[in-house]
Amino acid sequence: MTTALVTGASAGLGTEFTRQLAAAGHDVVLVARDAERLAALADELHRDHGVRTEVLPADLVAQDGLAAVRARIEQDEDPVTVLVNNAGYGILTDFIDTPVADEQRMLRLLVEVPLVLGHTAIRAMATRGGGHVVNVSSVAGFIPRGSYGAAKAWLISFSRWANVRYRPRGVVVTAVCPGLVHTEFHRRMELDTRNIPGFAWLDAPRVVREALAGAFDGRAVVVPSKRYRVVVAASRVLPDRLMAAAGRLGR
Ligand SMILES: NC(=O)c1ccc[n+]([C@@H]2O[C@H](COP(=O)([O-])OP(=O)(O)OC[C@H]3O[C@@H](n4cnc5c(N)ncnc54)[C@H](OP(=O)(O)O)[C@@H]3O)[C@@H](O)[C@H]2O)c1
Fold first, then answer.
1. Cα(86) to centroid of ligand 1, in Å?
2. CDD domains attached here (predicted)?
């Protein structure tokens, strides 16, 4: 049997990852802070797909929450074979107007948490003969977009390296880099999205379908949708000066 542990499973892309993984027959471990939402999702997944579900409510920014998830990944019984590092959020206020403690908290969730859980998982999976680590990054990781984009860039660089390094030991590490996706992300950061054109938006099911296909195909980086692959390709050939100018458009 295979077991997938998904962080940020209570909403958005995380919920969709659990739905598609359960539909494909994986047992699932659901991690986020909102225990009620996780319990409702666990019932739905068990009912619809007959898989075994576990609810692991945890605030990943808190030491005890992170330790509990690490312990589940290290557990040899019903071992985690797929880790999806997905939990995350953005900050809307300008960098210098944001208390540095808030920046550190976001950096912890976007970088330190996937580093710690990735370290635990890659180690355990390499010992057990293989597995998958999916790191949800962003197109923002290719373009200067404040501290959020810088954090997502870390995840891309790390995943590229880890994929090459640990594939020979059966562990595939994949960075998934979506553009704008309809989830709770923008509402939670109180961003007014009314001026963003419709073509810029992707739906979570499509993003997750491409993400999982790429990960199970062994890819290091997946950019869902042709339109965002064009954006990423352009970011690689356009002069740094021009790309940095994009950062003036906002956070
Ligand atoms: N939506 C986009 O346009 C977009 C684009 C590119 C990349 N992404 C990335 O995609 C990932 C998922 O975001 P989303 O769009 O699905 O956003 P979302 O709908 O707001 O979901 C975020 C998830 O993260 C969880 N979470 C937040 N803080 C947490 C904490 N301290 N501990 C544990 N769980 C926590 C939330 O659950 P609880 O509140 O229950 O804890 C929720 O399940 C993020 O890494 C984001 O950066 C999103």
1. 6
2. SDR_c (cd05233)
Distance between CA atoms of 105 and 102, rounded to whole angstroms? 5
Q: Residue 58 to residues 38, 119, 138: CA-CA distances in angstroms?
A: 11, 18, 23
The whole-number pLDDT of residue 159 equals 98
Which stretch of 140-144, 159-163, 216-220 has the lowest confidence by average pLDDT? Answer: 140-144
Known catalytic membership, residue 89: no
The pLDDT value recorded for residue 248 is 65
Q: pLDDT (tens digit, 9 = 90+) per residue, 23-36?
A: 999 999 999 999 99
Range of the domain at 39: 3-249
The mean predicted confidence, pLDDT, of the chain is 96
- Backbone φ and ψ for 149, nearest 5 degrees, come out as -65, -40
Instruction: Return the structure tokens found at 230.
Output: 């064009």
**Mean pLDDT, to the nearest integer, of 228-238?**
93
Mean pLDDT of 120-131: 97
Cα–Cα distances (Å) from 151 to 42, 52, 78, 148, 180, in that order, read: 30, 33, 32, 5, 17
Distance 142 CA to ligand 1 centre (A): 19
Count how many domains the chain has: 1
Q: Which of 89, 148, 166, 228 is catalytic?
A: 148
Distance, in Å, from the CA atom of 145 to the CA atom of 148, rounded to the nearest integer, reads 6
Going by CA atoms, what residue is nearest to atom 46 of ligand 1?
A: 88
What are residue 191's phi and psi, to 5 degrees? -95, 130
CATH number at residue 87: 3.40.50.720
Task: List beta partners, residue 180.
Answer: 201
